[in-house]
Structures are given as C-alpha cells and as structure tokens.
Specification:
Blueprint lengths: L5 H4 L1 H29 L20 H5 L1 H4 L2 H17 L6 H10 L9 H6 L16 H4 L1 H16 L4 H13 L7 H9 L8 H17 L9 H9 L4 H8 E2 L2 E2 L10 H15 L5 H7 L1 H5 L7 H12 L2 H6 L2 H12 L10 E4 L6 E4 L1 H14 L7 H13 L6 E2 L7 E2 H14 L4 H14 L14 H15 L13 H15 L16 E3 L2 H7 L4 E5 L2 H10 E2 L7 E6 L2 E8 L2 E7 L10 H12 L3 E10 L10 E9 L3 E3 L3 E3 L8 H8 L16 E8 L7 H10 L5 E3 L2 H11 L2 E10 L10 H16 L9
Parallel strand pairs: 7-10, 8-12, 8-13, 13-19, 14-17, 17-18
Antiparallel strand pairs: 1-2, 3-4, 5-6, 9-11, 10-11, 11-12, 13-18, 14-19, 15-16
Helix pairs in contact: 2-5, 5-9, 5-10, 10-11, 11-15, 12-13, 12-14, 15-18, 18-20, 18-21, 20-21, 21-22, 21-23, 23-24, 23-25, 24-25, 28-33, 29-32
C-alpha cells in the first residue's frame, strides 16, 4: 500500500487515540462526582433510566445477501472497520462519528439509512447513559447486526490459506513497532510487496523511539533541546541510540504483551531483514547479546527452548549472532534437565503420579535449532533420537500431542515437529509433514487465524502458515530451512544453470530484429513528442525493450533516428510515445550513461526517464533470477575516502517519487521464468558504481556498509546526475541476472532483461500512469 492509503491504514490507531482522549477528558468529571457522592452518601441521585426504543433502519434483504455481493477481502475490511468503531468508541456519538463510519465502510450505505441514523441524534438525551457516554452499540445497533452477519459469513468460508491472508492484511495495515509486524513479514516473504509500506513502518519505529525519549524513559540527564527534537520527531536514530543507551544496552522500543516477549526481539530482526528497514543496527546489536553470549546461568528447559526456536526463525539473527554463543545455548538444551540423552524428558509434578514425561515440542525444537545453528564438534546422536521419537508419536490425524503419553493433538507440538523434520529431512519426512499440514488447516479459527491459549495470535498464525507451506512443498517461508539462507537457493540456482533453462517455449527468447524506418532528426522532432524515455546499456536489454515497442500511430515501423553519439528508436511503449536509447556500460565516456541521459533529455524533453536492464542481487535467499529490483534510492559507492578505513562520502539520492509510486502500486503484473516460477518485484535502495561486481569479498564490503541494498548496477548515477540537472523524473528498474559473487555468467541476462522490460511495459500500459508529471 502506498502513503495515499495512510488514512485507512491509521484508522484503527486514530480511533484508539480518540477513545483515549475521551476517557482522559471524562476522568476529572467522573472523579468529582464520585467524591461528591462519597461525602454525601444519603444524597446520592442516579439518572432516571431512559427507555428510548430504537427503530432499526436496516436493509435486511441486502444484509442477508452480503456474502454474495462482497468479495472476501471486502468482508474482512468491513468486519475490521465496524469492529474497531464498536470496540474503541467512547463518549456520545456525534454527527462526525456517523459520517466517519459511513466513509470508512462504503458498503454500509447499501445496508443502512444513514439519514435516519443522523436524525436519531436529536433523541440522544433519551438513551441510557454510562459515565463514559451513550454506547455506540445501543445508539447504532444496526452496525452490531452488520458485524455479526459479516462474522457469520466469514466463519462459513472453508479453512484456507487465502482466508488467512485476508485476515493478515488487516493486521499488517495497522502494524507498527509491535508483534503485528509479523503479518507484514509474512506478506513480504510471499512476494506481496505492494501490501507492505516499509517506509511507514520505519517512521512508526522512529516515532516510538522519540516517544521513549520525550516520556523520559532514558537514563541520565538529557538536554532540553534533545528532548524537544524527540517530541518533534526530528532526532536522528544515531543520537537517539546514544541517549537511550545504558552501559552497552538499549532497551526495546517495541510494545508487546507478556506472551509476546519471548519472540519480540526476533520479530524485530525478521522485520529488518524482510522489509529492508535500515538505521536500527544499535538496537539489533544490543538485542542479540543474550543469544551471542550463551546462557550465563542455568536454563529453564521449556522456556529456553521456545526462546531459541524463535531466534532460529530469523535468518538475520543467525548471521549476526556469535556462533559459539548459539552453540552454547544448544548444548545447554541437549544436556537436558532430567536425563542427558533425552533432553525432552521433563518432570511432571502430578500429586497422584509424579513422573517423567516426554515433551514433544522440545524434540522438534532441538532438531530445528540444530540444523539452523549447524554446530561444530557435536555428535548427532540426540537429533537422531528426536527424529525417532517424532516418527513414533505422530497421531492418526497427522498432528502430534504435547506429550508422548497423550492422545490429544497439540498445535504447538505439531508446528515444532514440522519445522524440525523439514530441517533434518530424514527418510519419510515429506509424508509426515504433509499429513501435519492437512491437520493444521483444520485448526484455523472462524475468522482466519490460529491461536493457542496464552500465545501470540499473530506469531502463531505465521508459524502455522509456514508449517503448512512446508507440508505443501512450497519454498516461500519467513525463514530459510538451512543454516545459511543462500545455500538452499544456491542449489536451485546451480540446478537452473546446469539446465540452462528451456527457453524454446517462451515468446521473449531471442526476439527477431525489430523492423525500423530510418528517419531524419528534424522530421522526428516535428512529429514526435515522447513523454517517456527508456535507457539501456546492452544489446540484450535493447532487444527486450524493442520487442515491446510498437510503431507510432499511422506508422508500420518504429522510427530509427541517428544524431551525434546517440541512436534513438521512437514508438509506443505501452500507451506512451517513447524514445529508446542504448548507451555504453557505466557512466563515463562520450557514450556513457551520464552524457547519453543528458542528451536524451535535452533532445526529447520527456516527462520521465527509466533505466531498464540487468543487475546483481544482494541475497540469493530473497532475489532469484529475473526478480526485478525497483530502486527507491541510489547508493553511488565510488566516492570514498580511503585511509586506514574506507569512508563512503556519497549522497544517497531518492528516485522520482511519482515514478516510484506507479511501480509500487503495480499489483497485477506477472512474469514467469521458464520453470513456471513467478518473478517478484523488490523495492529498496540499489548500489551503483563503475565496477562490474563479480567478487564476493568486495560485494560483502559494500553490503556491510549498506545492508539495506537490494543489489547493484553501473549506470544509475549517470541518469541521476543528468535528470536532476534538468529536473526530470527518473527511476532505475533492473532485474537480477547474478549475485556478484564470482560466479557470473550470461545464463540469466536475457531472462532478467525480459522481466524488467515486462514490468515497465505493464506500468506504462496504463494511459494515466504519467498523469500529474
């Protein structure tokens, strides 16, 4: 979602904020009344009970068919909106309340006569009143009926992942610095980038930190100007981390319930990794300390196991934590509290029959943690016993019980077993986790989530969906099943390279030369006013763009115009007259990107310029061949101060905001690799420099300096320089063809060029894409 949807996203928070304000406003009056009553107990008077009877103005016929008229997404949105008002509304209903409800849930207008609801305000004094005003449910019972009917319809929808996704989108829209961000992590892991606004989340995190400083939740004395900047939310994260630091520790700024504390730190790590949220490294380094140091005293076998399990679901935490510290935690679990060879045995203090019981979640957690941490020098005997135990305790339903001597299926035990068996991949594991996934789906709650008593609903739901994906053989998870995320996907990449893909069945492979008509520059400038310019740097990229370029109106061929150092192809790309120009790789030279972009803008004066092509991806765990990197900012890394250490001195320019908006709101685009796997779009910072990166050590140094970078390319800085001088909207859109790790080849260049060109064509096939430029 883009920032244009901000009002809807923040609706729930705004309602809660207003409710809090109403409560605060009412408190002095309530306290005064209570004191007055206490001092005069015999003179207490109570308001006369009102008996106003509401005549409902509800279209019952329309309400009864709401499940047929609204989509699943619309049903969930209506349920969320109406429930928020009913739950958080405090104080007397007002005309503004009614208007707000009407606009927040547009479909309510088909069900309720809002004119009559407005007229009901005149009778407000006759309604039963509490110290906090007239209840919205009593004043407006129609929305209670709507809420109940929508819940009934949603509950009748069969259990499915799609049903869960509808619920998750509602949660993700309201996520901030809390465990609800797990919903956003899930959507990002499934490629639903458009549903997650990473920049908005970053702002909410910053706002929470500012609130901590402004509320004096920090040690020591802080100057008033610093507090003032925190209140104005202008304080930098670097300064905030110093203000809030106590010794070497930074307190959490995430809000959470008691049951969420066990996983809240790993949730922050997962959000940073999946959503590309940068700037919070000091908090990450502080939070990871407990994992890196290992246990400093004895461990609670059950609590410590679940704590380690959640940490191991974060790829970033596994990369950042000290290996020895993680191994120490694992060693402490392997040497169980009751018996060393079977650490899942715990003492059950039953008065009638105290005994040792086998707590099965521990077996799954030990297997999962072992393969995520990948300890050195440990014998594999305990994991083997864990596998055997899980093989022998799976119930007929496909679930696992919490204890081996029980027959009641348990959600947590089943999810832990699926994670563990999928990590170990022992003989027959696939059949076991498939049956478990089928059972997990039956445990979905009526409105789409999964829950356990005393647990986090959002975190439990995401774990259940990951387990179901594992059981279905899907690769998109919120974590990697291996120690290093790249290993799993590297095997896929190597497999693709060995096969070299079968391009014979795709229409974009090796396109024939585009027919063109040589045209004089004077005639072209008289006849064509291109609003869009596309730049490429290689012949492969040029062929894929020209493949989608159509002749101008009333022309049979595209026009080819030669002038100075540039050759321009003119035609229609999508719905816009477009100039396509190829430069040399890099920014330098007479035909480099800088001078070429400058010449194109001066010659054709387009509204927007896009550099289309190929790039290297930063992470094989997230960026597969053909995935498109849409730059939100460029990071030119060539400007450096080289001394005892390298200091990057470059600015980090943002791309054109309007173009970025158009690409981020591209929801229906689809482009498939030859193996029928859909390519994804990733939005974030992109490195740019003169070097053709194909060295893992060099790439890792760049990513260490800029961990949020999606990947890198060579021409973007030239486009930025030229476009900024002419105040022209610009953006860089390039797809992954390799990972700059020393294994570069040409196997994916055509795929990447075709994917990037396809995304651009989809965006500019909308005739209104350049409105407002």
């Amino acid at each position: 979602m883009g920032k244009s949807d901000g009002s809807r996203k923040l609706r729930g928070k705004a309602i809660r904020a207003q409710a809090h304000a109403n409560i605060v406003k009412a408190i002095p009056e309530i306290v005064a009344d209570l004191k007055k009553e206490e001092s005069n107990p015999k003179k207490r008077t109570y308001p006369k009970k009102r008996t106003y009877r509401v005549r409902k103005c509800l279209n019952t016929a329309a309400l009864n068919t709401i499940g047929e008229r609204l989509s699943q997404t619309e049903l969930f949105e209506m349920w969320s909106t109406v429930s928020s008002y009913l739950h958080w509304s405090i104080g007397d209903p007002t005309e503004q309340t009614i208007i707000s409800i009407r606009h927040s849930a547009p479909h309510l207008g088909d069900l309720i006569d809002f004119a009559k609801i407005g007229a009901r305000l005149e009778k407000l004094p006759e309604f039963e009143r509490s110290p906090f005003g007239v209840s919205l449910a009593k004043f407006f019972p129609e929305i209670v009926d709507v809420r109940n009917k929508v819940v009934e319809v949603i509950a009748a929808i069969p259990p499915s992942v799609e049903k869960a996704n509808s619920w998750i989108r509602i949660v993700a829209a309201d996520a901030g610095a809390d465990s609800d961000v797990e919903a956003a992590i899930y959507l990002a892991s499934r490629g639903d980038v458009a549903a997650v606004d990473s920049e908005m989340l970053r702002e909410r995190w910053h706002a929470m930190i500012c609130s901590d400083i402004a509320s004096s939740r920090y040690p020591g004395i802080v100057p008033e100007p610093t507090i003032a900047r925190a209140k104005q939310r202008t304080i930098s994260l670097a300064e905030a981390s110093q203000v809030l630091k106590f010794g070497e520790t930074l307190n959490r700024f995430f809000s959470f319930r008691d049951e969420e504390e066990i996983h809240i730190d790993s949730t922050m790590f997962r959000a940073v990794d999946w959503l590309g949220i940068s700037g919070f490294t000091p908090w990450l380094e502080s939070a990871i300390e407990d994992l890196s140091k290992g246990p400093q005293a004895g461990v609670d076998q059950s609590y410590s196991a679940w704590w380690l399990y959640h940490w191991c679901r974060s790829d970033l935490a596994i990369r950042m934590a000290d290996q020895v510290g993680m191994e120490t935690w694992l060693w402490a679990l392997l040497n169980g509290g009751v018996t060393r060879p079977e650490p899942w045995r715990i003492f059950w203090a039953d008065r009638k029959g105290p005994r040792d019981r086998e707590y099965l979640p521990l077996a799954g957690i030990i297997l999962f943690s072992w393969h995520r941490i990948n300890p050195s020098g440990f014998t594999y005997d305990v994991p083997v016993k864990a596998i055997r135990l899980l093989e022998q305790t799976q119930l007929q339903s496909g679930a696992w019980p919490a204890y081996s001597d029980d027959s009641e299926p348990d959600l947590l035990a089943t999810m832990a077993a699926v994670h563990g068996l999928a990590s170990a991949q022992s003989t027959g594991w696939r059949a076991m986790v498939t049956r478990a996934a089928d059972w997990l789906l039956t445990q979905q709650q009526d409105v789409g989530y999964w829950a356990v008593q005393g647990g986090s609903i959002v975190a439990t739901t995401i774990e259940a969906l990951d387990a179901i994906s594992i059981g279905r053989g899907e690769t998109k998870l919120t974590f990697s099943l291996t120690t290093e995320p790249s290993i799993h996907l590297q095997s896929q990449v190597e497999k693709h390279i060995d096969l070299v893909f079968d391009f014979s069945k795709v229409d974009w492979h090796n396109p024939s030369a585009t027919e063109s008509k040589s045209t004089a520059i004077e005639e072209a400038k008289r006849s064509v006013k291109p609003r869009l310019a596309l730049l490429v740097a290689t012949e492969t990229e040029l062929k894929q763009v020209l493949r989608l370029l159509r002749p101008l109106p009333q022309q049979k061929k595209i026009w080819k115009v030669s002038n100075g150092h540039e050759t321009t192809y003119l035609g229609r790309f999508g719905t816009f007259e477009t100039a396509v120009v190829m430069c040399f790789m890099g920014t330098l030279g007479a035909s480099g990107a800088t001078l070429t972009a400058n010449a194109v803008i001066e010659m054709w004066n387009p509204d927007a310029v896009v550099f289309v092509g190929i790039a290297f991806g930063a992470k094989q765990s997230k960026h597969l061949p053909g995935d498109v990197l849409v730059a939100s900012q460029l990071i030119p890394y060539e400007s450096q101060r080289v001394g005892s250490e390298i200091i990057f001195r470059n600015p980090v320019p943002p791309v054109g905001g309007r173009l970025l908006n158009r690409f981020r709101n591209t929801l229906e685009w689809s482009f498939y690799r030859p193996d029928d796997i859909k390519c994804n779009m990733h939005v974030g910072p992109v490195l740019t420099g003169e070097k053709l990166v194909d060295n893992l050590e060099f790439k890792d140094k760049l990513l260490a300096a800029y961990p949020s970078a999606l990947g890198g390319e060579m021409e973007g800085a030239g486009l930025w320089a030229a476009a900024e001088r002419h105040r022209t909207e610009w953006i860089v859109v390039k797809a992954v063809c390799d990972w700059g790790d020393g294994h570069k080849n040409d196997a994916y260049q055509e795929l990447a060029a075709a994917s990037a060109a396809s995304l651009c064509h989809h965006v500019f096939d909308d005739q209104h894409a350049l409105d407002g430029f």
